[in-house]
Design brief:
The protein is about 40% helix and about 25% strand. The protein has helices spanning about 40-55, 60-75, 80-90, 95-110, 115, 150-165, 180-190, 205-210, 225-240, 260-270, 290-305, 325-340, 350, 375, 395-400, 415-425, 460-465; strands at about 5, 10, 20-25, 30-35, 120-125, 130-135, 140-145, 165-170, 195-200, 215-220, 240-245, 250-255, 280-290, 345, 365-370, 385-390, 405, 410, 430-435, 450, 455, 470-475. The strands form 6 sheets. It has a 7-stranded mixed beta sheet with strand order 14-15-16-13-12-18-19, sandwiched between helices. Strands 9-8-7-10-11-21 form a 6-stranded mixed beta sheet, sandwiched between helices. Strand 3 (about 20-25) and strand 4 form a beta hairpin.
């Protein structure tokens, strides 16, 4: 049984509800994870609430020292964390290690919290009156994270929240639970007091309790759009801060003047890395003008060279999908794309026939798709790339802006003016120019628009610091005698 992590220690639950954890490469059950009840979720929040005041009152410099030690421990155990991710998610070890590295970068950002929490001050804003602002922690914060990034997405959240002086309850995906527990253990080893970081496994019962608990002040979520919408609505109704990141349909625009070889290399990694199970995966290549035939020709040998297999084995490019149910869902999209009239150029179902066990699907490529098709409209979350052909850059921008999801877009071109104009016209959260996946550095912030983000705040970076703190402004005056006047009822002025 995989334990919870509550109040600085592993908590094993011998009875009650649980679910199974699988090795996606074999389909074998490798463990069980408890599904917390509402009462257990309440208990976890109570622990975090009790521990919070002392941590709130700990100077930011001392909190930062814990983060510095934590950064060293996560780097030291990066390979171990990657193995835990691969064992439960299926992605290759190198990809898993890369995702841990991206989480490390957020820890490094959070180490600068003494500077990041600095407010503003002005002397003599009026006669003898000074004014200053300061950022203060919120209290108990909650993070609800997806199966596809068991280290990176939690590390987008709790290091920043904890550095700001909050306590935290992390509810990781029940499909990939082990990494979160190990991250919490390392945080304890770094010197974090018990109760400040807690890991609670569970399903909707636990989540709904966390969303409505009166002691929870802020909720961060990454997952599907339907659940993001539910989280946002529940938190708004309960008066909580919320950042809820939902689904995506990311496009890569290939302009006629682009370096086609560079664009093809970028697409291979962006579309098929992590078996396409990334919220920032590029699932649509928009070929502009004459770029379509050349791009397709460049992609084909690269796709055929991809090696499918268990993520823990050497020389593997694409690992399995997360579950049998998700495998069937993605296979269904391939059948749907065929039925809707897109040209199936490479069928990943064929490559998977060599595996007698596990949840494998090879790289799949469609061409000549359109915006009326489900393989363009819906988030597939698998190794399926679709080429859509348009005549002009303006049509490419209109295609992207017409989608309900607005997470990220990459543009491949040699024309700086065109890239600049398209970047300005795109109604999108993140834009990359000649980069495969438009994910910003940790000291910037991550987030989309439309149905890709519910709430007003992006995640990590300076936006994360603002989300996990509240502003207080202090206006002070030290009068002599009766400087205020004799009981005036007029609005005071400076």
């Amino acid at each position: 049984m995989i334990p919870h992590w509550i109040n600085g220690q592993r908590v094993l639950v011998a009875s009650g509800r649980h679910t199974q954890v699988f090795d996606p490469a074999t389909g074998a059950v490798t463990g069980r994870v408890p599904l917390a009840s509402a009462a257990e979720a309440q208990a976890a929040v109570s622990v975090a609430l009790k521990a919070w005041p002392a941590w709130r009152d700990t100077p930011a410099l001392k909190r930062a020292r814990v983060l510095f030690r934590y950064r060293e421990l996560v780097e030291k155990h990066r390979d171990e964390l990657a193995r835990l991710i691969t064992a439960e998610h299926g992605k290759t070890l190198s990809d898993a290690a890369g995702s841990v590295q991206r989480g490390l970068e957020v820890i490094e950002f959070a180490c600068g919290i003494p500077h990041l929490l600095q407010g503003e001050a002005s002397r003599d804003v009026g006669s003898g009156i000074d004014c200053q602002s300061q950022r203060e922690p919120l209290g108990v914060c909650v993070g609800i994270t997806p199966f596809n990034f068991p280290a990176m997405v939690p590390l987008w959240m709790f290091p920043v929240a904890i550095a700001c002086g909050n306590s935290f309850v992390l509810k990781p995906s029940e499909r990939t639970p082990s990494c979160a527990v190990r991250l919490a253990e390392l945080m304890s080893e770094a010197g974090l007091p018990p109760g400040i970081l807690n890991v609670l496994h569970g399903d909707r019962e636990a989540v709904d309790e966390l969303l409505q608990h009166p002691a929870v002040t802020a909720v961060s979520f990454v997952g599907s759009t339907p659940v993001a919408r539910h989280v946002y609505a529940a938190c708004a109704q309960a008066g909580k801060r919320v950042q809820a990141l939902g689904g995506a349909k990311n496009h890569l625009l290939v302009m006629p003047d682009a370096d086609i070889e560079l664009a093809a290399d970028a697409l291979i990694g962006a579309a098929y890395g992590s078996a396409g199970e990334r919220c920032m995966a590029i699932s649509v290549a928009v070929a502009v003008g004459a770029a379509g035939d050349a791009l397709r020709a460049a992609l084909l040998p690269r796709i055929r060279a991809l090696r499918l297999g268990a993520g823990g084995q050497p020389n593997v490019d694409i690992g399995p999908l997360i579950s049998a149910q998700h495998l069937e869902r993605v296979r269904g999209y391939i059948a749907t794309g065929e039925a809707e009239g897109a040209e199936l150029v490479v069928d990943g179902r064929i490559a998977a026939t060599t595996f007698s066990a596990g949840f494998f699907l090879g790289a799949t490529l469609f061409d000549h798709a359109s915006s009326t098709m489900r393989i363009w409209r819906e988030e597939v979350f698998g190794p399926l790339l679709t080429i859509v052909r348009v005549a002009t850059a303006a049509e490419a921008v209109a295609l992207v802006n017409g989608h309900e999801f607005a997470n990220g877009v990459s543009i491949f071109t040699r024309d700086g003016r065109l890239a600049r104009e398209c970047s300005a016209q795109l109604d999108i959260g993140m834009v990359g120019i000649n980069v495969p996946i438009p994910v910003p550095a940790a000291f910037f912030s991550f987030g989309g628009r439309k149905h890709s983000l519910f709430g007003d705040s992006n995640i990590h970076g300076v936006e994360g610091v603002r989300f996990y703190t509240q502003l207080k402004t202090i206006t002070s005056r030290w009068p002599r005698g009766h400087d205020f006047g004799a009981g005036s009822l007029d609005m005071p002025t400076l």
